[in-house]
């Protein structure tokens, strides 16, 4: 259980992030939901957590790609919720395109949000974790970062980068009682993937179906409580990347 803990989840207003927020709240954690623009959706997730599980929940607007905005937001979370023990770097975007057509802006936007955004969050939360003498960081990578994917060189690079980031952070902060792991989801049914019913890649999933956001949240709940696990990359992908 996560009673007495506070968890920060980026991109927590919908999809996989919202499922993780609700799962952690159901385990007794107070939650800070970081959202990019949709205040109504973020407030609705917070309300559901407070109403259903009686935990504290608050929403914070922040562009994770901005070092300074993240710094101010982590300070605001500390002021409102006291401290934080768990960070889930879930915010992510895609700007797919074949290499000859990919713009510099599309490459930079994906790296800035998915990889640098996670660094920004880790950078500014680490002070809280050091003071609390505990911390758990979970980075949401992707099977794209493990296998590569045509048309996603920017996204795959960002998600592979997250795995390197995860392992370095795990090694550096383990002596301080701070763990860092990654989850590599496969095809999960969310706004990001949309309707994939006719995608031929579905036939390559050994378990024969897309995953649900709640199934990724189960893995996050495991990593949040697995006190002897650090530097791991946990695939939640129906077997596609084995
Ligand atoms: P989604 O598009 O439904 O949610 C992403 C969230 O991140 C949104 O709430 C969005 O507002 C937020 N976000 C984007 N840029 C942001 C920024 N600069 N600052 C703050 N928040 C920002 O996507 P989904 O499917 O829930 O994905 C969540 C994570 O899981 C992403 O990192 C994605 O790459 C990863 N993932 C998803 C898979 C899938 O099949 N859905 C597969 C593998 C990984």
Strand content: 15-25%
Which residue ranges are poorly predicted, with pLDDT under 50 across at least 5 consecutive positions? Answer: none
Q: Give me the side-by-side strand order of the main sheet.
A: 3-2-1-4-5-6-7
CA radius of gyration: 17 Å
Distance between the termini: 30 Å
CATH class designation: Alpha Beta
What's the overall geometry? globular
Number of separate structural domains: 1
Bound compounds, each kind once, are: 1,4-dihydronicotinamide adenine dinucleotide
Number of helical segments?
Answer: 7
Could you tell me the mean pLDDT? 97
- Sheet with most strands: 7 strands, parallel
Task: Write a brief caption for the model.
With 242 residues, the chain is an alpha/beta fold. It has helices at 15-26, 39-53, 67-81, 104-132, 143-147, 153-173, 213-225; strands spanning 6-10, 30-35, 57-61, 86-89, 135-140, 178-185, 233-236.
Folded structure, characterized:
There is one protein chain. By secondary structure, this protein is an alpha/beta fold. It has one domain (6-236): Rossmann fold (3-Layer(aba) Sandwich), CATH 3.40.50.720. It is 45% helix and 16% strand. It is built from 7 helices and 7 strands. The protein has a 7-stranded parallel sheet, sandwiched between helices. Helix 1 (15-26) crosses helix 7 and helix 3 (67-81) runs parallel beside helix 4. The chain is globular and about 45 Å long. The model has no long low-confidence stretch (mean pLDDT 97). The protein binds 1,4-dihydronicotinamide adenine dinucleotide.
